[in-house]
Amino acid sequence: MNCADYVIIGSGSSGSALAYRLAENSNDQITVLEFGGSDFGPFINMPAALSYPMNMKRYDWGYFTEPEPNLDGRSIAAPRGKVIGGSSSINGMVYVRGHARDFDNWAQLGATGWSYQDVVPYFLRMENWHDCGSGGDPRVRGNDGPLHITRGIRKNPLIEAFEMAGVQAGYPATEDYNGYKQEGFGPMEQTIWNGKRWSAASAYLKPALQKPNVKLIRCFARRIIFEEKKAVGVEVNIGQRTEVIRANKEVLISASSFNSPKLLLLSGIGPADELNDLGIEVLVDRPGVGKNLMDHPEVYIQQACKQDVTLFKYWNWPAKILAGVQWTFFRNGIGSSNHFESCAFIRSAPGVEYPDIQIHFLPIAIRYDGQAISEGHGYQLHIGPMRCSSRGTVSLRDKNPETPPKIVFNYLSEQKDVIDFRRCVTIAREILAQPAFEPYRGKEIQPGEDVVSDDKIDQFIREHLESAYHPSGTCRMGNASDKKAVVDPQCRVIGVENLRVIDSSIFPQLTYGNTNGPSIMVGEKAADFILGRTLPPDENAQVWIHPNWETSNR
Ligand SMILES: Cc1cc2nc3c(=O)[nH]c(=O)nc-3n(C[C@H](O)[C@H](O)[C@H](O)COP(=O)(O)OP(=O)(O)OC[C@H]3O[C@@H](n4cnc5c(N)ncnc54)[C@H](O)[C@@H]3O)c2cc1C
C-alpha cells in the first residue's frame, strides 16, 4: 500500500511550495498527488504562448460557470491548471504580492497571524527579485528565494505612453508596486526567468522531487478517508484502479478554489442540508464550504492604433514561427515575454484608502484567451474593480467525484459592483484620452464611441465581463469559533483532525492583485505551521498611503 507522512493533493502554486518547504531539512516522507501531467513543451514554457494552455484539455480542467444571473445568462470560462505547477503553469505570469492592507484585513477577519507584518517575511523568503533596470528598492524585496521575478524589456513605445498618460491624468507613478508603494503607474513584474515561464513547478516542485523523501503520484483524488474524525488517507483513481494512499501524519488539500471545496463536500464536510440532499453522509456540518467565492472580473477597453507599433505585426504565421524558432534556440525575442509589462493600481474615488482598481496594459487589442483579435493595430486596458461585494458558490451536482463542480460567481449581484465597473470604464477612457497617446490614438474599438449612457455602459459590461481567473475564498480561513469559517488560522479544517486546506481557497478576502504570489505565500507559511515554526513578523514593514486619500483619488 502507498503511504507517506504527509499526502498533498495538488502540485499547484500552494502545493508545490508546501512540498518544497516540508521536505527541507526533514526526513518526513511526502507524497504529492496530481491529476495533471508534464509541463514540457512551448505552450506552457514560452511566455508569449500564454493563451494556449488555458484552452487545452490537456492542461485545463475545462470548467465553466452556470449561466450567470446578472450577465444575461452567459456562462463564463473558469480555467484552472491541470498540470504540474497547477494554475501557475497556465497563468499570465504576472506577479503581485497584494496590498499591505489586504493582509491586515485578513487578520481582522479572524486569520490571526496573517497581517502584513506577518506575511512579509514569507514573501521575502520566496522571492528572487531582479529589477531588470526599471527601479525599486532591493531592501524590501527577497533576493535568494526559489521564485524568480523579473520585468519585461519594456521597449514598446506604447508602454511609455501609458505610464505618462497615468501621470498626465494626475495619478502617481511607482517603480515597484510590490515594494512599499503599490499605488501608481509603473513596470509590471513577471514570473519569467531566462525567457521561460517560472511556475511553482520550476521554482519548488522539481527541486523538491530531487530529494529522496518526496514523491509525485499521477492520480485523481476522489475523497478523504477518515477513521472517526481523523483523516488517514486519500481515495484515488490511478488509471482504472481505485486505491487508498495513507497519511501517517496529515492530509493536505491544495487542489484550488474549485476542487478543494469539492473534495471536502465529497468527504462529508460541508452544509449538512446540501450533503443530505445528495445522499452523502455528513461527517461535519460546515455551512461555509463552497461559499464566499470571490473573483476579479474585468473588461477590455480597446483603442485602435494609428502607428504599426503594436504586437499585431507579429500576429501572422510567418512571424509566429520566427518568434518560436528564436525562442527555442535563444530564449529571447517576442516569445520570451507575456507582454504584460506595464500596469497601474489606482483608487476609484476620494475616500478610498488604497487601490481598488488594477489595470493591465497590453500593446495589442485581443481577448485574454486569444479567442478574438481585433483587425489591425490596437492596444487595450484590462480593467475591473478589485473589491467586489458579490459572492458566488461552488457546489456538487451529485456524489460522483468525476462530475465537474457547479460554479456560480454571481458577478454584479451587488449594485456597488455595477457602479464601480462604470467608474472603471470612465477612468480607462480618461487615461486613453491623455496627450501621451495622441500620436497613436485611433477610434475606440470597444466599448465603442456610442456607448456613453449608464444604461449602455452597463449593457456593455454585462456582455463583455470576463473572469481575471482569480477565484478564491471557498474554504475561508477564520476563527475556530466562526461558524462559517472552514479552516482555522493554521489552515486546519475545523471539526476534524489531521486535515488542512492550503491554497487560494482559504483567502478570507481576495487580495487586490493577481493571486499566484499570495497562493505561493500561503504554501510557504502553512508549511511552517505544520513544522511548528514561524518567521518573526517584520515590524519595520512600511506601506505608502496617499496623503490626500480622503479628499482625492489622484
Ligand atoms: C488562465 C489563468 C491566468 C491567470 N493569470 C494569473 C497571473 O498572471 N498572475 C497571477 O498572480 N495569478 C494568475 N492566475 C491565478 C493564479 O495562477 C492562481 O490563483 C493560483 O495559481 C492558485 O493556486 P492554487 O495553489 O490555489 O491552485 P492551483 O495552482 O490551481 O493548483 C491546484 C492543483 O491541484 C490539482 N488538482 C485539483 N484537483 C485534483 C484532484 N481531484 N486530484 C489530483 N489533483 C488535483 C490541479 O491539477 C492543480 O495542479 C491565473 C489563473 C489562470 C487559470
If you had to describe this structure to a student in words, what would you say it looks like?
- The protein has 554 residues and is α/β, with parallel strands linked by helices.
- 24% of the residues lie in helices and 21% in strands.
- The chain is built from twelve helices and 23 strands.
- β11 and β12 form a beta hairpin.
- α1 runs parallel beside α12 and α4 packs across α12.
- The longest helix has 18 residues.
- The radius of gyration is 23 Å and the shape is globular.
- The N and C termini lie far apart (62 Å).
- The model has no long low-confidence stretch (mean pLDDT 97).
- The site of flavin-adenine dinucleotide has 40 residues, from α1, β2, β10, α7 and α12.
- Flavin-adenine dinucleotide (FAD) binds next to α1, β2, β10, α7 and α12.
Helix coverage percent of residues? 10-25%
Poorly predicted regions:
none
Tally of separate helices: 12
Bound molecules: flavin-adenine dinucleotide
Number of strands: 23
Rg, please?
23 Å
| Distance from first to last alpha carbon | 62 Å
Principal-axes geometry comes out as globular
- Report the major sheet: 7 strands, mixed
Report mean pLDDT, rounded to a whole number: 97
How much strand content do the residues show? 15-25%
Structural class: alpha/beta
List keywords for this structure.
7-stranded mixed β-sheet; alpha/beta; 7-stranded antiparallel β-sheet; globular; binds flavin-adenine dinucleotide; 554 residues
